[in-house]
């Protein structure tokens, strides 16, 4: 399908801009939560530190996606739905990791990177559906 003038081009341009902002906000979120994790390691063990930083990451992700990526108002109702994105992302990652390690015999060190290529677009679409829902 050739993208030319009109609606398909407009949608492609808009989607690409949102997706780029989504990647930027994901990078910011990853850096912030990782730094938080490292700081918390001075006070707690790794599992508590990771859990706190992961939950903080959900809050930060919702904020960045709402305000920066999709330009929507913050909503408590939408925020309550937002962790579903992370549950789906986790389950898809785990399924892909299992299949790729156990059946495709890929290296366990590489598989999370492959899974990320699949789950980032899924996470983008789910985030958009929740945040832009009326």
Automatic annotation (TrEMBL):
<keyword id="KW-0812">Transmembrane</keyword>
<feature type="domain" description="GtrA/DPMS transmembrane">
    <location>
        <begin position="21"/>
        <end position="131"/>
    </location>
</feature>
<feature type="transmembrane region" description="Helical">
    <location>
        <begin position="50"/>
        <end position="70"/>
    </location>
</feature>
<feature type="transmembrane region" description="Helical">
    <location>
        <begin position="82"/>
        <end position="101"/>
    </location>
</feature>
<dbReference type="InterPro" id="IPR051401">
    <property type="entry name" value="GtrA_CellWall_Glycosyl"/>
</dbReference>
<keyword id="KW-0472">Membrane</keyword>
<dbReference type="InterPro" id="IPR007267">
    <property type="entry name" value="GtrA_DPMS_TM"/>
</dbReference>
<keyword id="KW-1133">Transmembrane helix</keyword>
<feature type="transmembrane region" description="Helical">
    <location>
        <begin position="107"/>
        <end position="126"/>
    </location>
</feature>
<feature type="transmembrane region" description="Helical">
    <location>
        <begin position="20"/>
        <end position="44"/>
    </location>
</feature>
<comment type="similarity">
    <text>Belongs to the GtrA family.</text>
</comment>
<dbReference type="Pfam" id="PF04138">
    <property type="entry name" value="GtrA_DPMS_TM"/>
</dbReference>
<protein>
    <submittedName>
        <fullName>Membrane protein</fullName>
    </submittedName>
</protein>
């Amino acid at each position: 399908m050739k993208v030319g003038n009109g609606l398909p081009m407009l949608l492609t341009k808009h989607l690409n801009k949102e997706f780029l902002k989504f990647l930027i906000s994901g990078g910011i979120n990853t850096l912030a939560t990782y730094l938080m994790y490292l700081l918390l390691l001075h006070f707690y063990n790794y599992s508590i530190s990771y859990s706190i930083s992961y939950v903080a990451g959900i809050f930060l992700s919702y904020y960045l996606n709402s305000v920066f990526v999709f330009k929507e108002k913050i909503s408590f109702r939408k925020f309550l739905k937002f962790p579903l994105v992370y549950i789906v992302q986790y389950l898809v990652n785990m399924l892909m990791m299992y299949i790729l390690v156990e059946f495709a015999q890929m290296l366990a060190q590489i598989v999370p990177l492959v899974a990320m290529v699949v789950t980032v677009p899924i996470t983008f679409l789910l985030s958009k559906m929740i945040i832009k829902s009326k």
